[in-house]
Records
---
Amino acid sequence: MRIALCQINPTVGDVDGNAAKIAAWIERARDAGAELAIFPELCVPGYPAEDLYLKRHFLAANVAAVEELAKGVEPGITVLIGFAEPAEGGGDYRHAYNSLAVLADGAVQHVYRKNRLPNYSVFDEQRYFIPGEAADATEVAGTRVGLTICEDVWSPGGPGQAAADAGARIVANPSGSPYHRGKGHEREEMFGERAREYDSYFAFVNLVGGQDELVFDGQSFLLAPDGSVLARAAQFDEDLVVVDVPLEDGAPAPSAEPLPDLDEVYGALVLGLHDYVEKNGFRHVGLGISGGIDSALVAILAVDAVGPERVSMVVMPSPHSSEETQDDARQIARNLGTELLDFPIEPMMDGYAEALGDVLDGLAAENIQARIRGNLMMALSNRNGWLVLTTGNKSEMSVGYATLYGDMAGGFAVIKDVPKTLVYQLVERRNERAGRELVPAAVIERPPSAELRPDQLDSDSLPDYDLLDRILEAYVERDQGSGEMVAAGLPAEIVDEVIRLVDRAEYKRRQAAPGIRITPKAFGRDRRLPITNRFGG
Amino acid sequence: MRIALCQINPTVGDVDGNAAKIAAWIERARDAGAELAIFPELCVPGYPAEDLYLKRHFLAANVAAVEELAKGVEPGITVLIGFAEPAEGGGDYRHAYNSLAVLADGAVQHVYRKNRLPNYSVFDEQRYFIPGEAADATEVAGTRVGLTICEDVWSPGGPGQAAADAGARIVANPSGSPYHRGKGHEREEMFGERAREYDSYFAFVNLVGGQDELVFDGQSFLLAPDGSVLARAAQFDEDLVVVDVPLEDGAPAPSAEPLPDLDEVYGALVLGLHDYVEKNGFRHVGLGISGGIDSALVAILAVDAVGPERVSMVVMPSPHSSEETQDDARQIARNLGTELLDFPIEPMMDGYAEALGDVLDGLAAENIQARIRGNLMMALSNRNGWLVLTTGNKSEMSVGYATLYGDMAGGFAVIKDVPKTLVYQLVERRNERAGRELVPAAVIERPPSAELRPDQLDSDSLPDYDLLDRILEAYVERDQGSGEMVAAGLPAEIVDEVIRLVDRAEYKRRQAAPGIRITPKAFGRDRRLPITNRFGG
């Protein structure tokens, strides 16, 4: 049987646009001789559409699109598409199933309902969907194809095993599986186990694209019953992979090689930013560039995501900004070929100093500089329709080393889930790939500083980033308590101080712009902690 | 049997503090001769503690507290307390049950596990807890007491009915049931049905207190088997209600009368603000006061919540601020007896105008005024440790009629769930209760204006608030589509425009401060929509 893995990038809520794309890809699959075309989970309404799934008129619109698509399916091909199926009688507080429509011969032949609904990490599917209770399969060209959706196969047993036990030779698994670093490898390992348990071929078809905080990385694949990868689709891009099952001996199957680790993270960030810009209809992005490593990374990401002609960089020096960092900032803009604007902030600092007198001291004086810059960026955004990118990294967001309404002002926080140590690695790797210093070496080598007072260094207030990032990984990503961390060899005093800082910064993070998740636990829908919280760690 | 309804206000995460409070209240209940003392749901760890429930060391701390409390329970009284019970073997991604410990004779006698876990609206209990599967009861002084927790009894059947069928004469229902307008009445109606179905007494014991967005209103009660209210605890305050079952004929039971509608909403706002301030350890709050109705309401609420000596008001006039509104602002501060600070913003407006030139036009020029004010408030906060209160109402937050990092700058958005029409009613009612014009009549009568350009009125940009609030209620609170709204008589063109505005403002709301939920659907954990969303309505 010839199978098409249809790895598409739909847009949440764009039911008509998604349906048009699916129709075009069904044609492409047919033209390639496919007998079975598999599309990702919930590709008609988009995923995750969150509380849109609670709106009955949204459900009605996505059903109408499925029915219209079915009419266009000519004999000879079976198509699996994901949609939100309204519950008859209305359900409880939920009104829908997370379903797969089997389209063939101009009609919806039947519907499979996802059995296992994830409700952890970034997932809230039990808020929206009623679980299905039956396994299901469909007959394609004389072969039985088991139907599952994403989470259904993330543990043994369940509807995948049941379908295999009932004779399925191929298990299809349309998915909406979001990225974190190394996730593609995890999936191939785990689904390899499933293929062996099922003793069947296994077709994983993932979404690709950015949706607010999430990136779907694609990397769909077809596994043989022994778990080996027969074909693999691209990461971070749409891809149509057509492959015959069983493969003729020696026949080549299309297989994209997985990207190396740092390039993979970089690719996720580029796609997440690109899609946030494009799906929200922004024509241009702007960012403040300081000459520091964080804004340097965001600058290259922006240029790689939307092109230099759609990026403006703004240098906003204060009396505390060194000539060297300003020069580096301007050099980065020149290297990348973007517009560069220059707005010294001293006149406005003087205005506030005059109005506020001795109120403006210490922290208040530092923050006002960041906030003047935030105001300038937002004025430029108001005037020019820019999406303003913020440049804070995960280490800073964790401990609250950032100014609300200052450097945190903006619509998208591109690297908010990238720890500082990884920021350096990504910049170095990007320079390496460019074969030249897109980011000057001095930016990488200079000790980090917010430059909000004379001779300020991050290390005045924070532990070394190597140590900080290790503590943060244990506390934020692995939910460890101080006892566990200290037992693992981390220094008690610093651990306690970091925990205190992270907990106290919750109110800032609550008002932060969304940004792209690249770790197993990002701030956002992934880590939900109260602001009012007296538990120390 | 003598029952004590122990309506306490715990703090999320403060396991030791909560346990100490519970121990003290057990003593009070014993002193009053109670044989059964019922505390609210999850009162030991606090509720909702969100992802704290995923931390194993947090679970361990709350178990230790329960065991310690049990040791102190002397013969003659049975105590029901809510805690998060770690799952043996660790569970799946969840590690705990939402449980009730039955304490008597110095030990935990047994544990009931909540069967029905709500996962809709503001609730995410299926993210945290494994459902229990058995009904349960305990014997107190020869009477069988059925054990349930909150959601267990929100529909017929289930563990409440099972316990009654097995002979329970009283069904206990420790709860964490958050407030919305009119909720107390809804509960008494619905639980009256349960009491009749069970043919038993029904003891609802609710949390009281504010927790970030939520207010728990208390209003615990004891119902007779015919559904009538035998005793009722206070709203918005801790209360110990001791009552005998069955009541002797003619014996009086302690019963607080429910507050009238507007006073109830007002009470919820005062408690929510009070607890946010106190539980987060703020000594002082500040707000910008414009002479408009919204900041007037927040000002009175602040004074009622923490007292005038802990409130500072800041007048920040621009050249567009009329003398009348400034005078009214100052009058309100005088009427309420708070500190009043004055910072004209023109010098800073000039600074930005000089630096930005023709960038500063139209919307940018309007927003910069709001952002200068935001900066001033935050500088005062940095200097003095204030919690800054924002003053935007629900109507404005819905349509995005607010400036990010400007009037939206602050830590707590007190009235963000209060529609504009209700803002007026609350101020009028508060004046009435005061017997004088705490808020001058001119503030109530003047047409609303943001005063960001000459002669600006809200009605230049928005429909009349009466109409706007009707559309918002249908769209935001009831998830209706435009077709449904127009069919109900709302004007099509305005409906479509309001939907567009609400959808487009999602990115602003994502960066808004948390505020107090008083309607059945607030912005926040209650309404989760993607920013990237092409569905029109």
---
Amino acid sequence: MKAIKTGNNQYLKELNKAIIMDLIRTSEGISRKALADKTGLSATATGTIVSSLLDDEYIQEKGLGKSSGGRKPVILELKPRSYFAFGFDIDSHCLYTIVMDITGDVIYKRKRENQNDFTPQQAIKTITKEYTKAVTKLKLSEDKILGVGVSVPGILDIVSKKIILAPNLGWSMVELLEPLKSALDIPVYLDNESMCSASCENWLGLCKDVEDFICINIESGIGSGLFLRGKAYRGISGSAGEVGHIPVNESGPVCKCGNVGCLETIASINGMVARANKSKKNNHDIGKTFNELLKNAREGDEECLRVLKEGAVSLGKAIAYLINTINPQKIVLGKRFPDYSELVIDVIRKTAKKYALTYPASQSEIIPSSFGEDSSALGAAIIPIRKLFGR
Amino acid sequence: MKAIKTGNNQYLKELNKAIIMDLIRTSEGISRKALADKTGLSATATGTIVSSLLDDEYIQEKGLGKSSGGRKPVILELKPRSYFAFGFDIDSHCLYTIVMDITGDVIYKRKRENQNDFTPQQAIKTITKEYTKAVTKLKLSEDKILGVGVSVPGILDIVSKKIILAPNLGWSMVELLEPLKSALDIPVYLDNESMCSASCENWLGLCKDVEDFICINIESGIGSGLFLRGKAYRGISGSAGEVGHIPVNESGPVCKCGNVGCLETIASINGMVARANKSKKNNHDIGKTFNELLKNAREGDEECLRVLKEGAVSLGKAIAYLINTINPQKIVLGKRFPDYSELVIDVIRKTAKKYALTYPASQSEIIPSSFGEDSSALGAAIIPIRKLFGR
């Protein structure tokens, strides 16, 4: 990315700093000269920015690179364990906590179970407690904490970030941002859970240089985060990506949204467990949890396998529609999906190929996420880190 | 939009010129001082650009504006009939020709019927003939012609613009751009037909300041063009917006794509005509054209009305998925749709509301286009004009 000559413009100075930081991050080792060449800034201007980043300990000198004639150049890299960000993911029955350094390394990870769904007040209280606990345990200096990102399973107002609806938590019109800012006294950012997962794929996962992708989260419900032209796409009011209610089976179950045969009634974890428990065709006790369903399926229980495959066919149909409409390069299936990907991914790919148009289907790859259930907490921690790199 | 200080950078000079031009266009009358204020350029730099635009006759002085203390300022506007662009739309049985000036005024319009589908060679020949005819008739000087845009009903390669597939023309892997450039000896641009219509809505129609919208064309088939974050969205390989194959009825007709109950089998013009002709329930002769179908429906023929309403319900369902997935501000229904909008728009709105999630549905407006069948030719003519304004 080309930098811009700044004069005394503070905004442009910060922008150039971010551009330099981002080049150091993405190159995984780069010299001052290469930075100047790539940004178009003078050697002096580049040197000044690099010195200030070294002083502030965002970056460090890694060693000497290869010479292209003269002296061997000093290679710069991000400094691990220098600055940190927190990511929280509010799930219906638990809170995930992640602490990440600016290189993307996770240095702390915790899952705290909750007996019931969090109320907003409980969520604020628990996040504050977990934050303090981690800061103390890791002996973090507050001036090294970039901020806190919070992932919420719901629709957020695009401007105010008020939570308009979070059905799995039973929340509507909830203000979480300001109370958290007051409680933590540090920059706080909220985002939708699926968007946090998509952001995690984009920053650390399988979609680092992918312009157009969709990250579909399979868990109690089904949601997705869209990255289009390399950036989070939210729609006009922040609710883009609600793919859980694509109808995929006209004779399917009634969904809580009021319609029939929505994707999430058939392909979500809750949907699959309900369908397995409803089936009386076999003598096995399928049990009430998804882990039991998976165990039975792996042991050859046909009813459990059938439920998983029906989920996969439905997901494949919905993906076909997304391929036709959005023409993405990748579709990443995340959250619980990697736990059972090997049982169903072929069915999903085959179904999507069958129902999508040939050309866009040939351009799209359907893959399981390399993260599991903590992708949203990871993505939440990435929000304050991204800002450092002007992303 | 802020301009950038240029020094001697030719690229930035052109950029600033385009920014000034675009401000003049969108303000519909603006003074030099207001231009300087809005761009952040000096009075001298602004004056130089304005003089050069006046010399080249892109703009003209309109008269005097209101004084804010001193002299009354001279108001600048785009100069009508100064520069022109051509738009062609290759349809299966006809070619639309549009000539537009830089203000967006259409000064020439022609629809040329063809007995059969165009072959690529026929298309090139016919476009060349129609171009020459219009240039001669309008006595256009070639240095005042900005370029030619061509709308094609198919999927174009995003880089080479080769036509990968145009099913209604029976074309696959067709090179049209280079032969047309050679034949016309002027800049030529190709784009997908639905995207041309969307671009027309964005430049001249109902979506001028709309960030996220979808323009769905109802004609022999069904396609759509997506504008997301204010810009054409094409997907990773140029085929985004293929909404004609969203499945909407599991017991519906078999589609030419091989699947069952695709939107366009039920809601396209060809689909509706086929369904009306297939129906034997009434004694009317429904006839073979969509115009006859509409006439009968308006005269109270229940079968014809039923076919239109089934189309509307299917369209409403597909729009519901689009609302959930993309969360657009507007959904514009174009091409043949305005001809019968009043008969079905309420059914479409009601169905979309029923099947979409409440919140995004409340943020989306479903409206008929204010253009008819020539929206793609208009959008094609806009391609060379857009470039003048850096858009």
---
Amino acid sequence: MKLDIAVLSGDGIGPEVTAQAIKALEAVAHSFDHTFIFKEALVGAIAIDKTGNPLPNETLELCVNTDAVLFGAIGDPKYDNNPSAPVRPEQGLLKLRKELGLYTNIRPVKAYPTLIDQSPLKRDIIEGTDISIYRELTGGIYFGKKHLSDDGTVASDLCEYSKMEIERVAHLAFKAAQKRKNKLTLVDKANVLESSRLWRKVVTEVAQEYKDVTLDFLFVDNAAMQMILNPSQFDVILTENMFGDIISDEASVIGGSIGLLASASVGDNCCMFEPIHGSYPQATGKGIANPIAAILSAAMLLEHFDLVGEANAIRDAVEKALELNITTPDLNTSNPLSTEKVGDFITDYI
Amino acid sequence: MKLDIAVLSGDGIGPEVTAQAIKALEAVAHSFDHTFIFKEALVGAIAIDKTGNPLPNETLELCVNTDAVLFGAIGDPKYDNNPSAPVRPEQGLLKLRKELGLYTNIRPVKAYPTLIDQSPLKRDIIEGTDISIYRELTGGIYFGKKHLSDDGTVASDLCEYSKMEIERVAHLAFKAAQKRKNKLTLVDKANVLESSRLWRKVVTEVAQEYKDVTLDFLFVDNAAMQMILNPSQFDVILTENMFGDIISDEASVIGGSIGLLASASVGDNCCMFEPIHGSYPQATGKGIANPIAAILSAAMLLEHFDLVGEANAIRDAVEKALELNITTPDLNTSNPLSTEKVGDFITDYI
Ligand SMILES: CC(C)[C@H](C(=O)O)[C@@H](O)C(=O)O
Ligand SMILES: CC(C)[C@H](C(=O)O)[C@@H](O)C(=O)O
């Protein structure tokens, strides 16, 4: 197979970890006889610094015409304390999601047996946890009409959803549940929000086409508790954009290391793969960033193109590295390896 | 002191636990020579059943003319699966908050040393946790304009905040921080929401009046992680209505038992005290409900009226009960006592 892959490595540790993911993909290309063509482009704070724009037109152009996007991370402390600044790195990411039509964000959360003791939660609570979170990514309060009164004393954001927006992500989530444990939990706040009531209605309708999947509902406040009390009860979680942002970040810490978590953002015409950790500026250039989340994002990319054996080759290599404790300082205090060395081991193992 | 207290015990286990809180308050009245006059009224599912209205006019009337409201719980499974039903118990609670102007919800979250092992989180993570969450309660997306298109395919909710709404709850939160560890964390999503940017701006201005309090900011997704990774970093958390609903419920599980957590909802003219557990219908009438959250809500009531010694008398009695393991089955599997017996012990101890 031939794939054009745009590489947007971004800020902070983004470039370091993305480099390891590319190495892993090149090893796969070599072993399985594929051709992957990588083209780099700017995004985030580095793009603002160089062009004034967090998502330059050439970057968007490249992404629109590529098969997949490999994304690093964005964000720089110099923008963090001023969310009202006219240009900010996040705007690049949000615009990219919207322009590429990436309406579904998929985040797997798994308790790796070797890492359970690193979790802030007790072993018996997290054992067996294997969740796939489907978050709507291009609608809701993120993209609804914003307003600030002329005198600056009243501000508002509109959370709006249409049936179509709910249906398309729901179908992807139900299909995923069919390949997993046939359970889907819709997280909403239907006891308060009109938009949540529409979610419940539309998802209940879509469920008719997936009779083998059990659908249940959880209010978001309760979901935030259940995620800690009993995470292994979940299979697929489906939710709207803002709730998904919160619940998926909460879920990300139960597995023991955020340095392992990958995500995919998909739409009808494009797809993007991204480690969920951020740009982690304090670690930049020190060789201590964990490359596994970026490498597992590459595995999600392969799986997206039905290269299942290839994806598993990456996952096996990662599990081997974890088993042998060939890991960065976040997971390994006694004998840590560098970002690059961990990447090398995984690449060689593939 | 003479206090008129409206008692809205509501649904499920509400009446059982509220009865124990009243006993504790009566013991305090007796020991400290106060007069507390209790008047009961209907709210929630039971009010719908009896009057068709989750907040009958007589109930609202009583609350408006009282010094404080002691609230039990609302909710009944027969309404849960139909959030679109025209009349629902939650509407009573939301209307009560709005009509009484209860714009601040205060929830203390503490790790009780005797209960740490009951927590889903590891001991070293939660030790020392002592948080007070200030949630705005009468604004934001809960009360903003809702809309459903005529053909039922587009739904929306408006999240709107004014400077005044932010200021008044912020002042209460800063004052609380001054009596605690002088730290206030604003939780928002200012990298995405216009309303959050107004929160940041206004809270930063209010902070000028409280120079002894350190203010910091956390995006809500990060807050959801930090609450699990390192809850003892927090002192006072201030946040808007929806984020407060999620974050405070998440925080409620770290202490080891939701059966211990009390809350206060305060405004300029009224105040209401409520255990944070819900109506827990499965436990109704079995004598297994933990009355401590309701009893600690009564302590918050006393403290609100500056009856600090009285509030501490209740808290000491509760700590004694926990220490001697005089507790309900949720905390005590070997030799559990009934709701009433736990209430009796605490009352006698006072
Ligand atoms: C950076 C921010 C705008 C973004 C979001 O809220 O979606 C991030 O938190 C994420 O989850 O990818
Ligand atoms: C019952 C519901 C409307 C309510 C809320 O969301 O405010 C509850 O979850 C709470 O936190 O008191």
---
Amino acid sequence: MNSAAPAPASAPAPRIDGNTQVIVHLGWPTHSFKSPLIYNPYFAAHGINMAVVPLACTADQLGGLLPSLLRLRNVRGALITMPLKVAVLELLDASSTAVKVAGACNAVRCDPQGRLVGEQFDGEGFVRGLRRQGFRTEGARALVVGSGGVGCAIAASLAGAGVAELHLSDADPLCAQRLSTRLAAHHPGLQTSIGPPDPAGLDLVVNATPLGMRADDPLPFSVDQLSPSTWVGEVVLQPPVTPLLAAAKARGCRTQAGVDMLFEQIPAYLEFFDLPGTTPEELRRLAQL
Amino acid sequence: MNSAAPAPASAPAPRIDGNTQVIVHLGWPTHSFKSPLIYNPYFAAHGINMAVVPLACTADQLGGLLPSLLRLRNVRGALITMPLKVAVLELLDASSTAVKVAGACNAVRCDPQGRLVGEQFDGEGFVRGLRRQGFRTEGARALVVGSGGVGCAIAASLAGAGVAELHLSDADPLCAQRLSTRLAAHHPGLQTSIGPPDPAGLDLVVNATPLGMRADDPLPFSVDQLSPSTWVGEVVLQPPVTPLLAAAKARGCRTQAGVDMLFEQIPAYLEFFDLPGTTPEELRRLAQL
């Protein structure tokens, strides 16, 4: 095995010693993991003796590893990413409604009774960011385009935040149908529909597909019917301003970019792991991305 | 990156990212772990993207954790300390003679066939240090006082290094007897004896007891019969010059301190984990102890 050389450090890196606590980040491949570059500079800047450490774990390895790992006294919890977000569900003793609706989990900790507790903050970050900009989720009419992992998570959090209508659209209608079924089970008052992505007359439209990552991608939905009063959310991280966001801005819509959602969810993770809070702005300033 | 950021106060710390490989250090309690403070500055100085990370693991947790952990793709291996050095033996698929004689293991890695391979370098560090000072182990007559973990490890390595006689002494003769039995099984040509600690006429005498850590400790053996030609080794780390070492130096003996043994063993671990070599001197200079 050959290890790639580390990138030069600018902001402080945490010093690991015998008192260091650990948050493991499980997934495979690990190369694109951003969490050590976001959390660890924050820990160092705040004098918190903790480190996020990547562990390359595949789905077949997870069950034999996670319960033992989370019961170690200096392991505060685990971040769970691809390809483990669904596989981890069967290891949990308890999980939030957001996990149940999303059908996926991306954070686990061991509670004082030794139970593994799962949470899901992809969608929470999305909703927090919108609210901080002034969007009122209660009673809103929303469309989520894409019912994959992140689309399910956003739909789950929008439902939890009190939207009145949630319209779903996916190239595979069965994916949207499964999400709709889970939404109905946990949010009986919510009105849902499945169909082609039509943004007309809505308060919020979200792109939760990968469309926009590549220069020649089509828009995830037609912006012709997009009203200036409709908010537009995006999950694609690169480019920072996707063609969808550019088109929405040009029509006068308020928007939320993928990177906003990323940094908005970190304070939620910090709370889950019983760590001191901070702002998305500080995290973004410290991050070594 | 901010060029005005303050320089780190001490030696560089490794920056953890998605390409970082991990050596876990398992034991409990973890607070006194020195390994992150020795290895990590070395990794950072050499541009090796690797980190030693403490994991607080008790003996009842080890079996459920270690095999899964060592099979993760970015885990290079494990350092094993108290209270796990003996418990780990039953998890190993293969181990060195030093492990078998010492009855303890302090380093494990997963080989390309997926087998857990154990090694033991406490004693190796002791022997390397002596040899670098010019001590000739082949045919030597040695006394090891104390048949606990470190005494067994040193006896195992001295036997492996070709000493002719190995005299053992322990407050609990049964401990010395068990070590003697293991030595006989693996080193049939070696002459051993068990008895009170008498340094007269020997080439090497080793204190492998904790005596010397506290100011009011008695000497581990009487120095009256200590000849200037006898080398004296010490395992106690603090104080750096124990009363035994001071007495031995006063009689003209050559000596090896506990901290020498500590730094001499690190290059052996680096080799075991397929990492670039270095000298004990460089490790000592970089360490953040």
